[in-house]
Amino acid sequence: MKAKKHLGQHFLTDKAVVSDILRAIKNNCPSEQPMLEVGPGQGVLTYELAEHYGEFQAVEFDRDMIAILSQKLPPTMLINDNFLSLELSSLFEGREFNLVGNYPYNISSQIIFKMIDNVAQIPVMVGMFQKEVAERITAQSGSRGSGIISLRTQVYYEAELLFNIAPDAFSPPPKVNSSIILLRRKENYGLKCDEKLFNHIIKTAFQQRRKKLRNTLKPFLKDLDLEILQKRPEQLGVTDFINITELITQQKEENESRS
């Protein structure tokens, strides 16, 4: 497992940390379910995961790492590609699979959004992120860290930061701390409002996060004077933004019916 920051590679070498990560994966991802590992690197987790999970594949963009992995793993387990360009529905015959990995830090947010786009196929994710990003993903409603990525993620998943990892667990040590997080899909994960509008609303709100919603969302809710609009976006949770989205949709429908 490796942490990537810009063009550098930082390989996880602390055996105690490796054991902690493997334990977190096995405790949350049943062995009878397919497993996809992203960014296996030199295989510090990969070989044990391949033995533990009956259906296992690893996707790695670096050809040098693929050459190392292929010495111990069959070609059917290895995918030499960029995870962001993969058609996930083609994996495991379109069935659900759990996702694990140490995600390249420069595209970790994009990986989360791709996972959200494929929520019906991914019930559980255990992964390593830069600590700052992990805290944003798992931020609770009303906290200063709450934002677009936490709201979009927590529409569909329960999010938990499991533990932090210091730089000296890697060789060479990165300049940032890392964290392992768990995302577990909610039982009723469907978004009960217009998803495109919901995403547009939270993006608009957080583009000017210091301003109250009555200012940032004024173009959407021209005629409504609601107490919730006196708040700033980080003070609201998923349910609040769903309610706002539904109000905007209702107002639009009423205006269209009058015209």
Considering the chains and any ligands shown, give keywords for the structure.
259 residues, alpha/beta, Rossmann fold, Helicase, Ruva Protein, domain 3, 2 domains, three-stranded antiparallel sheet, 36% helix, elongated
What would you note in describing this structure?
This protein has 259 residues and is an alpha/beta fold. It contains nine helices and ten strands. The strands form two sheets. It has a seven-stranded mixed sheet. Strand 3, helix 2 and strand 4 form a beta-alpha-beta unit. Helix 7 packs across helix 9. It is elongated. The N and C termini lie far apart (59 Å).
State the strand order across the main sheet: 5-4-3-6-7-10-8
Please state roughly what percent of the residues sit in beta strands, choosing from under 5%, 5-15%, 15-25%, 25-35%, 35-45% or over 45%.
15-25%
Strand tally is 10
Categorize the overall geometry.
Answer: elongated
The helix tally amounts to: 9
Percent of residues in helices: 25-40%
What is the SS-derived class?
A: alpha/beta
By CATH reckoning, the class of the largest domain would read Alpha Beta
Integer count of domains? 2
